[in-house]
Every structure is written in C-alpha cells, then in structure tokens.
Design brief:
Length: about 190
C-alpha cells in the first residue's frame, strides 16, 4: 500500500513539475519594422537533387561542396563524382557504358555535380515521366527510384535490378488536392 502511495505522489509531482512552468506562454513579439537580416550568414547545405550530395560528395569535401556556388560545382567536383560513381555502380564498369539518358560517366557526373533542380518553363515539369527527364519535380515523382535507375540501371534500366529501386512506391497518405498539397501528419 505504501508503494502505491509513493508512486501516486511521484506521478503527481512529475505532472506538476512539467505543467507548472511559465516558459511555454508563447509571449512572442513581432518586430513591426520587419526581420533583421544584418549579420553574417553561411550556407550549411545544398540539396538541389535529393541524395546526390549525400552519395557522390566524399565526406572530406562535404563542407566545401555545400558552400560552392552551383555554377562552380561542376568543374570543382565532377572528377570526384565520376570516381565515386564508377566505384559504386557496376553499370559503368566498361568503357563507353551509358545510362538510359545516353550519358557516359563523365557527362552524367558533370550534370550531377552542378546540384540544381532544373525546371522546364515551357514543357512538362517532372523528375521523370517516361519521356521527360530532370525537367523539374512534381510531389508525386519517385525521385529516389529515378536516381537509382540512372545510376545503376544501365542503358535501358534493366541492369542491376536489386539496386535500381527503393521499393517505396507511394506515400503513407494521399497528397491533398489544394494548397499546401502535402498530407497532414498522422
């Protein structure tokens, strides 16, 4: 009986301890003059195309890659991207091997090393829809599988089947039909 009494006291004290503080009053004030952008800011990460930076930039070069402007990334990082691609993907084992876009390792990694998401202003916007490739991105695009296919799938997406699909074919919840389009958290 005493043990139950002590447990109830402990639970009561913990409830009071966590719920009686005044640090969660949300007394946030907004400066009427607007945000203050003075100071020094540094870029911490780039991710124009998901997973590209993660996979192809060597750990010792991550910080340098993340602060390099995209127009300089290709020249600075393409050799590293190519070496990492050729070490990673059996689809580029032979001289002259290409991916389904017809790009050899040097050309493909030159495209990837400039880590920006290109967007078609006058055509279909998609990461890949069977015809259009890397012309933008829709929420429904299976970006990681497309990247895996381009890296491991070879000339016709049939090589290295086990490596060419993340097997995640849909979201946990459907996208909304109106803004903000992303499903609410469950």
């Amino acid at each position: 009986m005493k043990t139950l009494k002590y447990m109830l006291v402990a639970v009561g004290v913990s409830i009071l301890s966590f719920n009686c503080s005044n640090d969660d009053d949300n007394n946030m004030t907004i400066d009427p003059t607007g945000p203050d952008f003075s100071g020094t800011y540094t870029q911490a990460d780039q991710m124009g195309r998901p997973a590209v930076n993660t996979v192809f930039v060597s750990p010792s070069a991550k910080d340098q890659f993340n602060v390099t402007i995209p127009s300089s990334q290709g020249a600075a990082f393409q050799p590293m991207f190519q070496a990492n691609l050729e070490a990673l993907s059996p689809a580029y084992n032979e001289e002259g091997d290409t991916n389904a876009l017809g790009l050899d390792a040097a050309t493909f990694t030159g495209l990837l090393a400039t880590d920006v998401l290109t967007v078609s202003l006058d055509g279909e916007t998609t990461f890949y829809d069977g015809t259009n490739v890397l012309t933008g991105r829709k929420l429904t695009d299976d970006v990681i599988t497309v990247e895996l296919l381009l890296i491991f799938g070879g000339e016709d997406f049939t090589e290295n089947g086990a490596l060419s699909n993340d097997n995640v074919d849909m979201n946990d919840k459907e996208f909304l039909s109106s803004f903000p389009y992303l499903a609410s958290a469950w």
